[in-house]
Amino acid sequence: MTEITKTTDRLPASLERFVLQWGDLGGQWGVNRSISQIHALLYLAERPLTAEDVCESLGMARSNVSNSIKELLAWNLIRRVPLRHDRREHFEAETNVWEIAARIAAGRKAREIDPALAALRACVAEAEEDGKVSPVARQRLKDMLDFTTAVDRWYGQMLSIPQGKRDMLMRLGAKIASYLPGGKT
């Protein structure tokens, strides 16, 4: 069971709604709903939680919670936290939103962008040597490779900018575009 079934006495309605909505959003992003709900619960938690705490709060099966925790650990979105005089494993989520976004972006880059770049480079190289490939198709493959390379380069540039400057860039938003040629005034 992935839905929250008995949190009404455990979580305030607004937090329950966030956990449910984060689960739905995760599903839309290709992430298992349970994983997303557990991440949301740990993100909101004021103290580290055990797997049993998660099971009770979200009404999920222990095996589902265990597998989901392993996945969250692999994405580096949560960590184990040892507590004195308690042999059980406790978990807490990263709470810095920029760090969460950076870790998710790094995981997605490794799983999606890097393989896409490798495949596109191979396709472009093969197309260059294959006389049966039309110039139009060859150019479209190059365009796709150029775009994906630009996204990869942009990702690297964003990582190198200190957090304070990234915050400033976000606040500036469309104002920056207005200074570029052809930008709106």
Secondary-structure blueprint:
Elements: H1 13-28, H2 33-44, E1 49-50, H3 51-58, H4 62-74, E2 78-83, E3 86-93, H5 97-129, H6 135-160, H7 163-172, H8 174-179
Antiparallel strand pairs: 1-3, 2-3
Give an overview in words:
The chain has 185 residues and is mostly helical. It has 8 helices and 3 strands, in the order ααβααββαααα. It has a 3-stranded antiparallel sheet with strand order 1-3-2. Strand 2 (78-83) and strand 3 (86-93) form a beta hairpin. Helix 5 packs antiparallel against helix 6.
Mean pLDDT over the full residue set: 91
SSE pattern, N- to C-terminal: HHEHHEEHHHH
What's the overall geometry?
Answer: extended
Beta-strand content: 5-15%
Which radius of gyration do the C-alpha atoms yield? 22 Å
Largest sheet: 3 strands, antiparallel
Helical fraction equals 55-70%
What is the end-to-end distance?
52 Å
| Counted beta strands | 3
Main β-sheet, spatial strand arrangement: 1-3-2
Query: What is the SS-derived class?
Result: mainly alpha
Low-pLDDT residue intervals, each spanning 5 or more residues: 1-8
Number of helices: 8
